[in-house]
Amino acid sequence: MQCPKCPGTMETKTYGRKITLHRCNECSGLYCKPDVLTEMKREWMSEIVLDTGSKKVGQKYDVIGDINCPECGIPMDKTFDRHQTHIWFESCSQCEGMYFDAGEFSDLKRDTFLDRVRDLVRGRRPDAAT
After folding, report:
1. Looking at the 3D structure of the chain, how many domains does it have?
2. Terminal Cα distance for the chain, rounded
3. On the CB side of 54, how many CA atoms lie within 13 Å of its CA?
4. CA triplet 51, 39, 68: central angle to 5 degrees?
5. How distant, in Å, are the alpha carbons of 27, 36, 88 from that of 77?
């Protein structure tokens, strides 16, 4: 599977018994399904083991917004987390796959006081996604 943001290849990674996702061997972006994301949020230390890429590299690729789903090839939608509205990621309306740039899942899993303040200052986004 080709990475939708860089020339890298999405490699299958597993953690525990319930988590299987794809991680880019170059930019370390993550591609998974909603049920896997739920397990990733629950699993202890999953952000350390799975989201191994540099946050700076992730921020570099975050500006690329028009990408196609690595699984089914249709354009992905830019969306955000409804609890942490500063976190943007891409989602596929057809297969429900989600793509997170390096560092985004770690940020998503660690809901901090600073995140809450940031979201209050920026305000809520008009339509919540996940």
Report:
1. 1
2. 25
3. 6
4. 60
5. 20, 19, 10
Pair 76, 68: CB distance under 8 Å: yes
Q: Tell me whether residue 62 is in a domain.
A: yes
Whether 5 maps to a domain, the answer reads no
CA–chain centroid gap for 64, Å, is: 13
Domain assignment of residue 41, yes or no: yes
Segment 110-129, tens digit of pLDDT: 866 565 566 667 665 555 44
What's the pLDDT score for residue 32?
A: 98
As beta bridge partners, residue 23 has: 11, 30
Tens digits of residue pLDDT in 42-90: 999 999 999 999 999 999 999 998 999 999 999 999 998 888 888 889 9
Print the domain residue range for 54: 10-122
